[in-house]
Automatic annotation (TrEMBL):
The gene is atpF. One of its GO terms (cellular component) is proton-transporting ATP synthase complex. Belongs to the ATPase B chain family. It is a single-pass membrane protein. This is ATP synthase CF0 subunit I.
Length: 184
């Protein structure tokens, strides 16, 4: 804790501030600040992110299973349509003289309707997956940001005690006083 405090506060840096002051050396303090923030984000956000991703994965897998069931239903419908088609073809042999062209139209309509139905189901499945993925990404981003901010605030609040707070206020007052003397 003392090393962390010393990296932000430099004793004797400004003579007008007494024995307390801020370390304004950006190259010395920024890597420390960034490493603390990244450490807090990784420590607090990793578990939450894993849980969110696992939950999202389960929801996506459930959606995929539902889509597969819909696809299986469409395949069964296709098989029934093919059985019906075979039946229609057998009847076509019997009625070839009277209505061969009409039976062929019904056959094509049946195949086209089934293909269209399969295409719609496949498009619906793809749209659902894309939508769920985008929503999951958005939720994960929001949760990670929220957790990171909460973790950072908690860490800052736990590290800032009243003595350090009063020392910081005194140093800032000293800095403002010296700045006022310079401008006068």
């Amino acid at each position: 804790m003392k090393n962390l405090t010393d990296s932000f506060v430099s004793l004797g840096h400004w003579p007008s501030a007494g024995s307390f002051g801020f370390n304004t050396d950006i190259l010395a303090t920024n890597p420390i600040n960034l490493s603390v923030v990244f450490g807090v984000l990784i420590f607090f956000g990793k578990g939450v992110l894993n849980d969110l991703l696992d939950n999202r994965k389960q929801r996506i897998l459930s959606t995929i299973r539902n889509s597969e069931e819909l696809r299986r239903g469409a395949v069964e419908q296709l098989e029934r349509a093919r059985a019906r088609l075979r039946k229609v073809e057998m009847e076509a042999d019997e009625y070839r003289i009277n209505g061969y062209s009409e039976i062929e139209r019904e056959k094509e309509n049946l195949i086209n309707a089934t293909c269209d139905s399969l295409e719609r189901l496949e498009n619906y499945k793809n749209e659902t997956l894309h939508f769920e993925q985008q929503r999951a990404i958005s939720q994960v981003r929001q949760r990670v940001l929220q957790q990171a901010l909460q973790g950072a605030l908690g860490t800052l609040n736990s590290c800032l005690n009243s003595e350090l707070h009063f020392r910081t206020i005194r140093a800032n007052i000293g800095i403002l006083g010296s700045m006022e003397e310079i401008t006068d």
